[in-house]
């Protein structure tokens, strides 16, 4: 359930991007890269804030991390809405970005996010065996020699890099990080050596399919792809909540 949309990372990116679009933050010095870079900075700052808020007694429980993400994300969303209401300019551009989309994105944007994506995925893949041990729970993993808190810090940093880079370029496309890993896990099992590469590939395929549907459904116009993923993600989120009540999940 540690999706960037839930952890508040998307809200932080949205606030950074909104500041760039409404107030011209960084536009004169960064040019066309002002929007993705301010969004990236907002996402990283939010992730650091959420982690520090969730940290209790030297530990970071996942449930507390999610609650902190929801709280911080809600606050940042409110600030973003306030800026939109009081500014009164470029509202359409901001709203379209907040809904997420791949329109107008090119290889220049790919080159901007590529180093962060590669670095984040490399860190995750180097820790797949420890992730498998973590499936036993925090305490058993600790007894087996895994520095649980250190591993959480490293993986949260890697996940922040990849999520922040993706959101900075595409806008807020919610629920992809929630739907895909759980769906792929049902097919390939919990082994992270297979799960991580499979989820990465499946996420790319799902987003491409959603973007294609968004372009075709309202042709010659275009529906923001975030609308399509949210329509799929909302019901799936409810399914996960109900499924979790069943024994053995």
Low-confidence stretches: none
Strand/helix succession: HHHHHHHHHHHH
What percentage of the residues does DSSP assign to strands (E)?
under 5%
Outline: globular
Rg, Å, rounded: 18 Å
Q: Main sheet, how many strands, which sense, barrel?
A: none
Quaternary status: single chain
Number of strands: 0
Q: Percentage of helical residues?
A: over 70%
Our measurement of the CA-to-CA distance between the termini, rounded to an integer number of angstroms, reads: 14 Å
Overall pLDDT confidence: 83
| Global structural class | mainly alpha
Number of helices: 12
List the helices and strands and how they pair.
Elements (H helix, E strand, L loop, with lengths): L8 H15 L3 H4 L3 H21 L7 H26 L3 H9 L7 H20 L1 H7 L3 H6 L4 H23 L5 H13 L3 H26 L7 H19 L6
What features would you describe in this structure?
- With 249 residues, the protein is mostly helical.
- 76% of the residues lie in helices and 0% in strands.
- The protein has 12 helices and no strands.
- The chain has helices at residues 9-23, 27-30, 34-54, 62-87, 91-99, 107-126, 128-134, 138-143, 148-170, 176-188, 192-217, 225-243.
- It is globular, with a radius of gyration of 18 Å.
């Amino acid at each position: 359930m540690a999706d960037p949309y839930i952890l508040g990372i998307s809200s932080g990116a949205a606030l950074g991007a909104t500041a760039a679009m409404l107030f011209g933050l960084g536009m004169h010095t960064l040019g066309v890269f002002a929007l993705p870079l301010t969004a990236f900075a907002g996402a990283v700052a939010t992730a650091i804030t959420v982690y520090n808020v969730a940290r209790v007694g030297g530990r970071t429980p996942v449930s507390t991390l999610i609650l902190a993400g929801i709280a911080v994300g809600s606050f940042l969303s409110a600030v973003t809405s306030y800026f939109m209401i009081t500014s009164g300019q470029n509202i359409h551009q901001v709203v379209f970005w907040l809904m997420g989309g791949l329109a107008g994105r090119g290889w220049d944007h790919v080159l901007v996010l590529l180093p962060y994506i590669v670095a984040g995925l490399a860190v995750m893949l180097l820790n797949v065996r420890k992730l498998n041990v973590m499936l036993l729970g925090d305490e058993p993993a600790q007894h087996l020699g895994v520095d649980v808190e250190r591993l959480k810090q490293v993986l949260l940093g890697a996940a922040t890099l990849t999520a922040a880079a993706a959101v900075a370029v595409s806008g807020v496309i919610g629920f992809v990080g929630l739907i895909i890993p759980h769906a792929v896990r049902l097919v390939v099992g919990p082994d992270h050596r297979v799960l991580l590469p499979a989820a990465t590939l499946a996420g790319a395929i799902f987003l491409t399919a959603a973007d294609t549907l968004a372009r075709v459904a309202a042709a010659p116009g275009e529906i923001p792809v975030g609308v399509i993923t949210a329509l799929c993600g909302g019901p799936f989120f409810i399914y996960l909540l109900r499924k979790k009540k069943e024994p053995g999940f």
